[in-house]
Amino acid sequence: IDHVDVTTTVTSWISDMENYIVLEPLGSGGFGEVLKCRSLRSGNFFAMKRFFAPDETHHIFQRELAPLSVLKHDNVIRLLTAFLHGGLMHAIFELLEHSLCDELKKKGCGLESLTIKKYSFQILRAVDFIHSHNIMHRDIKPDNLLVSRSGVLKLADFGSGRASNHAAVPLTRAAGTMWFSAPEMLVMDPDYNKPVDVWAVGCTLVFMTTGNYFLKGERFLEHIKMIITKVGPLTAIQEQQYLNNVKHAREFAALPLVHPTTDLMEKYGISDPLLAQLVETCLQMDPVDRWRCSALLRHPYYTQDHFHESFPKELEKMVDQDQSVHLMVEQDSFPPITTWEKFQERNNNSPRCRNPGTRRRREMEQVGEKDAGKGVNITLSLCL
């Protein structure tokens, strides 16, 4: 697959709410909620994402579920099935133990150096993969990076994602989370593209290393000032977009004129010089100057000790350790439906999947009640 055109290529699966027992809430946001559920077909645990936008089902299907239906990669969250119930779109995802944000909060500081290298390499693999399919994520942050029991990291929540070569839909500043948003997104440059994800990766790298957000403005203008102070001045294009789209000239004139430190380790609070250089290649004010993920994967930070050659082999073993999860996923996956029209037709006209029966359902409910708090947990962040 060379690219994904979400306006014409829409793939999903048909299932039914009757096939799942909802156990407990895992998270919620402006667009819906995430629930821990159990399959009546197999007894396996999954994450159910329920969207609270009955008038947006087609849009949700195209923007979030369509890309995930074709993005098959070890470092991208796996979508099993999607269906309509009560007029709302529901999607079933594989269930992972925790998010990168959970791990950092639990630790209370930055991660160990080898863990940073392993996680960052997997993040770049995931972003490089979706970029190769012309998809921007637009909301990369620790909450949307999930980690399996064996340490496999997966990029999740494509609610803000969109095709990078699709000009019919205007881009929006509100697509992502401000603390991880690139300057061109913040000033509403209509031509921003894949480099916005690279900026977010850079912010995530600092967070993984220090345990603190690198850029944390509470309000928009404060955040812009922080970027200028800590990273560098806006480009000429960004200045013009700021004046055109965001604030008046008086407020722009109040922005600081400073020169951030050139000592990269001091700048980012990172003691590893190669890691500090890697972050610097991501956090360039001009998106043209940011390295592509394919190049970042060959940065000296990864090549110096041949990590880029040895770790992929280790990652294969880590994925194999999660093989039971993959078998569960395959066990509960449904055949693909290639168009939105077929999706609607199947939901509206076709017989429902067979009900497992009252006895089987009650047996599973009893097991679910007993084990509700014992299964693995997930943080599947919603697009806020």
From TrEMBL:
Reactions listed under catalytic activity: L-seryl-[protein] + ATP = O-phospho-L-seryl-[protein] + ADP + H(+); L-threonyl-[protein] + ATP = O-phospho-L-threonyl-[protein] + ADP + H(+)
**The keyword Membrane belongs to this UniProt entry's keyword annotation:** no
Q: Where is this region: Disordered?
A: 346-370
Molecular-function annotations in GO: ATP binding; MAP kinase activity
**What is the enzyme's class at the highest EC level?**
transferase
Protein name (record): mitogen-activated protein kinase
Residues in Protein kinase domain copies: 20-302
Cite the EC number.
2.7.11.24
Q: Which UniProt keywords apply?
A: ATP-binding, Kinase, Nucleotide-binding, Serine/threonine-protein kinase, Transferase
Classify the source by domain of life. Eukaryota
* InterPro entries (UniProt xref): CDK, Kinase-like_dom_sf, Prot_kinase_dom, Protein_kinase_ATP_BS, Ser/Thr_kinase_AS
